[in-house]
Design brief:
2 copies of one chain form a homodimer. Chain A is an alpha/beta fold. Chain A contains 13 helices and 12 strands.
Chain lengths: ~400, ~400
């Protein structure tokens, strides 16, 4: 027996198994609604495929709303409500009661900036902004920028050190920024535990949900999270650069002081008064006039996610990633030594990270075969298992192509 | 002779005149490229009509770029360059050399926030943020917010008082925010003179070009303006909530310190390093991942403006507004007593403001007749003469409908 199984013989039972699972799993049908063109999309943690009817939705907004009703469409076609109504859809996906999430129309970086300043202002006598060392780079840049504006000190820490900082020096921490999924390794953190640590220290907890929203159960209300932001273009499927969302729980609405005080956040925006008076509820977190076409695309993307529901989405994502590991195990078990993500699916978000030599070249070779993944320098491959449009057969094919590419590269 | 001419007899020569001018004026042809559906659009200072082929452009981006190339489309289809390439188109419309304008993908309010903080940071020892009392409300809110963050004092002043503040207390003024067109009255200011006053006082001049861009000559480089922002959805035609632009002249690139430091403004965004290092040139003013579909619509809207060029755009806008006044003068001269805008067309931007009783009701009655304008409480009607799609015959019709509505209301 060889240590490296022959992939050509081992694919047959896996192919059968993929077919069987695709036939049995009811979610697979939803893949038909996406414009995937036979490509395997395992980079939904970056930008998933569009729904096939998106262009029609955009054309309808342009020709049936904008063209005939012009600026009145903001009122008559519900455009003005979209930041909040999209927010309520997101609330259903993120375990929040309605009226606590808004899509103001800014980028994720800017929305985080707004949230962090608001968070730190809730603790004006404290001097530290704590952030996970493994945070997505833009979160680090924004934390630095906010700290400089407010005269705070940024402390970065990982894992136990992060917790220790809250336990030991918690009384100095104004706000702590964390993510429920590590964007590199896919490792899942425990929101409730970290939020509780923050509260025990009297610090405000702020979350970047970009790699969790739309795939992972995130019970914002139950976890007693203070503020949270996330992008619209990863698992949520809102398309390139889809605007970010901001979660601001009702208990903080009166108390919070947001720096991006644009006219859409005013209590009576069309009175055009001299002085800013924040709107009631979550509307106070709106800013300027939002980019409508991008809001429309995000809104349109959320419906199939809501139809399926987060528990089923997460469960399917886990099953897909487990099947991927099973395929690798049977075809090329040595590869799993490079697995950076936790082996326990309950400790993972929606993606797997695998260490291989020359990751970027592997990513390119897979793209040539119609399998889209992404890489992070120098040696990390990331495979995302977005539950709405990835099938078992695609997972099998991706695993086989990965083995073939690595084989060819030896 | 009656003081109120009979509109039914006076329309005939005006109708002839409108036909003659529409036949003679070459710009009229461009109106055919817009989805105007027979409606008269005199609110292009708010939201103009879409180009008829916009939905096709969006569908092409969705199906020919996003669907087949996914995240790679950011590189292969030029998406990543759009914030700067759209900026260069805007530079051509605003009298700026290339590489000085960027569309980062934020709302106008947020872009102004970013610009004002950067401006005030250039003068760290000064305590006043000066702003025109007639500024658009969101500018006032944002100025207040910035002043609170930086510990500055906001001073609002109009006309001579604004100038006096710069002359008398100029040494305290960190930054002065002004607009080349008053959003209510349409009165045109003199950018060069105000910018020179700012410079003489050592203050940084910041401009809100929202009501000027795409219709008025604005020679940013020649006027030695420091920073400027503007929205994409008025005369620029970028559609509902089109993202804002930021002008930052080359001479300030090294010196400026922008607070919205997102990863797209990093020198090497895809290296994902811990520390923010601003990109060379105007790219440093980018923020997070921009809302692509809204960028595509803005980009698409700019081409016909560039084809015509600002001098011809402004000249035609002036001729249209002059013809409107001529129509009113011949049909109902008493109305002109309510003209709030300067009578000299060279002292106006792209719109006229007229004081009438019960302005909102008049706006609604005109909308029912297919003439779209806007009103500002309590008694101001605004008529915008966007040069790309408004014809003389539409102007004549709008004037007649206005007279009819006011007649019926007596």
């Amino acid at each position: 027996m060889t240590t490296q199984p022959d992939t050509s013989t081992s694919t047959t039972p896996l192919w059968d198994e993929a077919q069987r699972r695709d036939t049995a799993a009811p979610l697979t049908a939803s893949a038909r609604g996406f414009a995937t063109d036979g490509t395997v999309h395992l980079n939904g943690n970056s930008l998933g495929p569009p729904r096939a009817d998106l262009a029609g939705e955009l054309a309808s907004v342009v020709h049936d709303q904008w063209a005939p009703r012009q600026v009145q469409a903001w009122f008559r076609d519900g455009w003005l409500d979209l930041p909040r109504s999209i927010g309520d859809k997101l609330a259903a996906l993120l375990g929040a009661a309605p009226g606590q999430i808004v899509v103001a129309g800014e980028t994720t970086s800017t929305t985080l900036f707004n949230a962090l300043i608001a968070a730190c202002r809730l603790r004006p006598d404290r001097s530290v902004l704590l952030i996970e060392a493994s945070a997505f780079p833009t979160d680090l840049y924004i934390a630095d920028s906010v700290a400089r504006l407010l005269g705070l000190r940024v402390v970065t820490a990982s894992g136990e050190d992060f917790d220790s900082c809250l336990r030991g020096n918690g009384r100095h921490v104004a706000a702590a920024l964390a993510a429920p999924v590590d964007f590199r390794t896919g490792e899942r953190g425990t929101i409730g535990r970290t939020a509780a640590l923050c509260h025990a220290a009297g610090a405000v907890s702020v979350w970047d949900l970009s790699h969790a929203a739309g795939v992972l159960p995130v019970d914002l209300d139950a976890a007693d999270v203070d503020l949270a932001v996330g992008c619209g273009y990863k698992y949520l499927g809102g398309g390139p650069g889809a605007p970010a969302f901001l979660y601001l729980p009702t208990r903080l609405h009166q108390e919070v002081d947001l720096p991006l005080a644009g006219w859409h956040g005013h209590a009576r925006p069309f009175d055009m008064t001299r002085t800013f008076e924040p709107a009631a509820g979550i509307d106070r977190a709106r800013t300027g006039t939002p980019p409508l076409l991008s809001l429309v695309a995000l809104n349109h993307a959320l419906d199939p996610l809501l139809d399926v529901g987060v528990p089923a989405l997460y469960s399917r994502s886990q099953q897909l990633s487990e099947f991927f590991l099973e395929c690798l195990e049977r075809s090329r078990p040595g590869l799993l030594e490079g697995l950076v993500s936790p082996r326990d699916p309950d400790r993972r978000g929606g993606h797997l990270a695998l260490r291989v030599p020359d990751a970027e070249r592997v990513e390119e070779a897979l793209a040539e075969r119609g399998v889209l993944i992404d890489s992070r320098p120098p040696d990390l491959l990331r495979f995302a298992f977005a539950p709405l449009y990835v099938t078992y057969e695609q997972v099998r094919r991706a695993a086989q192509d990965l083995c073939d590419v690595l084989e060819g590269g030896q």
